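Chains adopt folds. We examine one example:
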Amino acid sequence: MSAVPVLVVVGAGPRGTGLLERIAANAPELLGPGVELDVHLVDPHPPGGGRIWRRAQSPLLRMNSMAEDVTMFTDERTTMDGPVRPGPSLAEWAADPAAHPPHLPVEDPEVAAELRTLAPTDFPTRRVQSAYLDWTLRRAAAELPDNVRLFVHRDTALRITGDPAGPQRVHLSGTVLLADRVVLALGHLDSAPGPDTAAARAFAARHGRSYLPPAFTADADLSGLAPGEHVLVRGLGLAFVDLVALLTEGRGGRFTPRPGGGLRYHPSGREPVLHAGSRRGVPYHAKTGYRLQGPPPPLPRHFGPDLELPDGTIEFKRDLWPAMAKEIGFGYYHELFHGHPERTALPWAEFLAAHDRLPWYGPERAALVAAAVPDPEDRLDLERLDRPLAGLRAGSPAELQQHLRAHLRADLARRSDLRHSADLGAFHALLSLYGQLVRLLPVHPLTARSTAAELDGWWQGFFSFYASGPPGFRLEQLLALSDAGLLHFLGPDLRVDLDEQHGTFRASSPALPGHHVHGTALVDAFLPRHDLGRTGDPLLRHLLREGRIDEEELTDPDGHRYRSGLVRTDPDARLLDPALDGRPHPRRTALGAPTTTRAPAAFARPRTDAPSFRQNDAVARRLLTELQKEE
């Protein structure tokens, strides 16, 4: 091994970029005098944005966050040992790129034009985020101290070999890198279609129909969906929103303002006809278009490090959710009482004292809220939020469409009306919950059943539904497409059957008893869930085949098992190696989406103590300390 320690980071997207920023921030303190370090970033896609945030994608695809709510930099709220290196949010950088060195003009004229007019509350295109991530990587590289050299390889890592006690060999398609430490920062990965899609795939092949399994929409081949074809869509989340954009405006249609408000859609004639539904039956809530009217809620309050939990494995809904729900309630009512005191009937201190004392579930808390908040529409109802169409029965398809359009209009009105800024207080609490879970779960593991059904299932779905929705204008577009007859809502608890007699996919919902919709194509509009056994990443496939990584598998005392599809890591993000009897590999680390840290978001809202920033800092400090000893 060379006298200069070497770190290889596989993945140069947002997570690899964030780790490099933390290396630059911590190296002056942790690398001793005269100690050098070589850092190699490996990624076949453009560094900074990586595959998901690459510039080469449709300008129709946007972020689901406002420009002012996106940052790659730590701040005074980040709980970490390393130094804070403040940096601009996407909005601050876009306002004056030349004020933030190192400055290079943005080459794409369309992206440069968007940057010139981007407002803090705009929802940028993903291409603008790519430019911001590219600049972030260049800034991190420029801030590396003189004793740290950076090498970027536009290449694919295929294998890692080497004894745990010696150098690691990272085999790229064009060369081999010798490393003292290796970090996998692979981001969101594809998986081959699983057995749950086998029947649909076989049916489509047998009848000459189209079936698209879960995929990142920007990479999906939509050419098989013909103009005028009736297409069934499962899923109403962000992948669905992107799908709709590409199949409408992406095929030449146009939206124009309608007199009196709303939008009108002008078809190109090349659009398919979409019939869409899901478990809830409604699209994700639109993002709020306003700021808090009161001070930010001081979080955490009920769901933080002091939470008392039973020994041994726990259950999410039973042991965690009551405190989590109470935290959401605190965030909501903190904003209602401070931002809109005229709509409350008790002093905040009196309400808070009782709210702190009473359990979330129970008649006492319900009575407190009824006394303190006169208007029922101002009261937080998490169950109604979770299942807004529960019990819905429509008399006809037209009645169902009317109900769903009314729901979208009401959601749009609420998310754009400052009177309802308490919803944003609940949103802040949800972000806090996510960060606290990352800290808590390694210490208090969940049962296999609870992890599958409640953490990876219900909670992830509820969080995304409430907190990860699209910009409001996307719901306006859905309404316009519904008016134009190109989008029909199928309702909640969607069921899709394979109709062998007619050779079509058949959709139904209990909201419209006895009614079925037939389609000649089916799209599963979900982001693919990573499954290590079916991963599309060649490096992970090699490590799995060689028995050097394995998938998280949880087993309950009664024998119930759950395989999450995630790569097992320890709390310090070291890869757990089956060849070492499941102990951490001393030279291999993995971060981000496909790992059991369950902290996939690589960038965050400012001043939210983002889990990924905390993890990047801890890993950077550990690696620098270890690498100094390698010299």
Summary: The mean pLDDT is 96.
